[in-house]
Design goal:
- By secondary structure, the chain is α+β, with helices and mostly antiparallel strands.
- It has eleven helices and 24 strands.
- Among the domains are: 161 residues, D-Amino Acid Oxidase, subunit A, domain 2 (D-Amino Acid Oxidase, Chain A, domain 2, 2-Layer Sandwich); 102 residues, 3-layer Sandwich (Rieske Iron-sulfur Protein).
- Helices cover 25% and strands 26% of the residues.
- The strands form four sheets. Strands 3, 4, 5, 6, 11, 12, 13, 14 and 15 form a nine-stranded mixed β-sheet that branches. Strands 1, 2, 7, 8, 9, 10, 16 and 17 form an eight-stranded mixed β-sheet that branches.
- Strand 16 and strand 17 form a beta hairpin.
- The chain binds flavin-adenine dinucleotide.
- The site of flavin-adenine dinucleotide (FAD) has 42 residues, from helix 2, strand 11, strand 15 and helix 7.
- One of its GO terms (cellular component) is cytoplasm.
- This is Rieske domain-containing protein.
């Protein structure tokens, strides 16, 4: 195979334990090509108790954007992060800023009514522009640009005309709905994307003008560097929140409550308001039970500069492909293509990148080498809208979760809603995103039930063993050893053959984790918590990691945390 056709490596070597403090998988995302991990600002770990007005937990786009909106309004903000900044899904995103929503306005209106769909359309349009305003104000070089977004049928219009026509009908309905909500949408017959010269001969598209894209970590690092200079902002990394509880009594306007956040190192942060910007909230059930958890896969493949139209592109498949371009070097751009989603811990990751690569090569014959391939996690609320606002049952603890594939714009919306609400002002969009909403969730009873059954079925892993003997494990792999008489053990053998052992029970609700060969992680099929090969928690709702049960397991956890 010639160099420019280098294909994807689906099963990399195991990285050092510290790698999982920078990102949530063994595979690196394309963003480090022009913005390496070493460019990310560093902050100390919290080494004492402290008081602040607002404590934000998590330093992805939700945390940083909310901090920005609060700090610019004059509030005192402390942000804490369990690992390094941007180590969560934000560092592994694909970076579409879209008001053409993944779930579609027709579906959203069925659950939330036309008013809810209108708020969704308005708020995502706001988010696209808000990022543009911040980019302009702070002169941030991050490839931010407005682009059209195209959604096309997944079917060949000549070979599968019936299915193609069904898709076209659905796309046309979505355009009509979006137009009625004031969005610049249109349906273009005979449309084709410049540079799509291969098969299938794809025509016709729903076109949304006014979408945008950017380099996510360049943007957020610049915002964070600005925040770092503000007297009312402080950040602590390697500081993991283990417990978040409201203290005191408050009945109506009488009394005051504060929030106490306990960290893994034993320190307490006391604040008037807390924001869980942890991608998924750190709780047992509540909104956790109202979401599905999926892995999604991306590759960055070279295409000669100018050979493919600069646009956002999606197809109509259930596990749809999503496409955009980003700068690679003087000669090439990277085409970032994602898709092939599946439920966390329930399917084999190997083969997904290859499938995406084949999809690209069939359609874009000019594509060159695949230089990056990585996966990440997304969350689907059963009623399609993110959960942004007060955590159910709390008065001063906010959550931001349920990205629905549009987590970047949701994060920007969250920044506005939470800052406005903390100031005691009304926000028109708050009700649509309210985590305690009832009506749309009641309308989703059927989906909730089948989701519950699916989740509970994952406890079957209590009766299964991936390996019968540690000897059977090849170097560089992991598996669960489930002796009938003892608790299941998560075992991995490093590339040199040394064995490391952990409890296989997820600390969240005791699901038995699965080995993810591609990302060298342990993934819980019950509620989507994930842990590095060394048991470090890289995705909630679990707050903590897997218990190490031998000295080499403990040593690799120590090495990660001291990085
Ligand atoms: C491959 C992929 C492609 C995507 N593409 C798009 C797209 O094109 N457009 C779009 O809008 N959305 C997209 N999304 C979704 C979007 O990227 C995410 O929804 C968004 O980045 C989530 O940001 P966040 O800040 O909420 O969470 P994160 O970025 O995950 O940040 C959460 C942070 O909280 C920290 N944390 C967790 N627990 C604790 C704790 N106990 N104490 C302290 N800190 C803690 C984590 O370490 C992490 O750094 C995509 C997602 C993926 C994975």
């Amino acid at each position: 195979m010639s160099r420019n056709m280098a294909t994807v490596n689906e099963n990399p070597r195991q990285p050092a334990p510290s790698h999982f403090m920078a990102t949530s998988g063994a595979q690196d995302p394309v963003w480090i090509h022009t913005e390496p991990y070493s460019n990310r600002p560093r902050f100390p770990a919290l080494d004492r108790d402290l008081d602040t007005e607002v404590c934000i937990i998590g330093s992805g786009i939700s945390g940083i954007q909310t901090a920005y909106e609060l700090v610019t309004r004059g509030h005192q903000v402390v942000m804490i992060e369990a690992r390094d900044i941007l180590s969560g899904e934000t560092g592994r995103t694909s970076g579409h800023l879209a008001s053409s929503l993944d779930d579609g306005y027709t579906n959203i209106a069925q659950k939330h009514g036309d008013q809810g769909a209108l708020y969704a359309a308005q708020s995502h349009s706001f988010a696209i522009d808000r990022v543009g305003e911040i980019v302009k104000k702070h002169d941030i070089e991050c490839e931010y640009r407005k682009l059209p977004g195209y959604t096309i049928s997944q079917w060949d219009r000549r070979k599968q005309p019936k299915k193609h026509d069904e898709d076209v009908k659905m796309l046309k309905e979505e355009v009509v709905k979006a137009k009625a909500l004031g969005l610049p949408a249109d349906f273009k017959e005979g449309f084709s994307v410049k540079g799509w010269d291969g098969e299938p001969d794809q025509r016709d598209a729903a076109v949304f003008e006014g979408q945008a894209t950017f380099h996510p970590t360049k943007y957020l690092i610049a915002v964070l560097n600005w925040l770092k200079q503000q007297p009312n902002f402080t950040c602590y990394t390697h500081t993991r929140a283990m417990n978040i509880a409201e203290k005191g009594i408050e009945i109506g306007p009488i009394g005051t409550k504060s929030v106490e956040i306990k960290t893994l190192a034993g320190h307490t942060i006391t604040c008037a308001q807390a924001v869980e910007a942890t991608c998924v909230p750190l709780q047992k059930l509540s909104v956790i039970a109202e979401m599905e958890f999926d892995r999604t896969y991306c590759i960055a493949i070279r295409v000669p500069k100018g050979s493919v139209e600069d646009c956002l592109l999606y197809d109509s498949a259930e596990e749809y492909k999503y496409v955009r371009l980003t700068h690679c070097d003087d000669k090439d751009d990277y085409m970032v293509v994602g898709g092939c989603d599946h439920k966390v811990g329930q399917e084999e990751p190997i083969g997904r990148y290859k499938e995406i690569e084949t999809w690209v090569r069939e359609r874009f014959p000019q594509a060159g080498s695949v230089d990056y391939a990585w996966s990440g996690q997304i969350f689907e609320p059963v009623d399609y809208m993110a959960f942004i606002g007060l955590n159910p049952g709390n008065k001063h603890t906010y959550i931001i979760t349920g990205d629905s594939g549009n987590g970047l714009t949701h994060a920007v919306i969250a920044g506005r809603i939470i800052a406005t609400t903390i100031e005691g002002k009304p926000d028109a969009w708050a009700s649509a995103y309210n985590p305690s909403r009832v009506t749309s969730l009641l309308k989703s009873g059927k989906e909730l039930l089948s989701h519950d059954l699916q989740i509970n079925a994952q406890y079957k892993r209590f009766l299964q063993s991936d390996i019968q003997d540690i000897e059977d494990l090849p170097n560089g792999e992991g598996g669960v050893l489930n002796p009938a008489t003892k608790s299941p053990m998560a075992v991995y053998k490093d590339d040199e053959g040394k064995v490391h052992k952990f409890s296989a029970l997820c600390p969240h609700l005791k699901g038995v984790v699965c080995w993810n060969r591609s990302e060298k992680s342990w993934d819980c099929p019950v509620h989507g918590s994930r842990f590095s090969k060394d048991g470090i928690c890289v995705m909630g709702p679990s707050k903590g990691g897997l218990n190490a049960i031998d000295d080499s397991g403990k040593a690799s956890q120590q090495e990660a945390m001291q990085a």
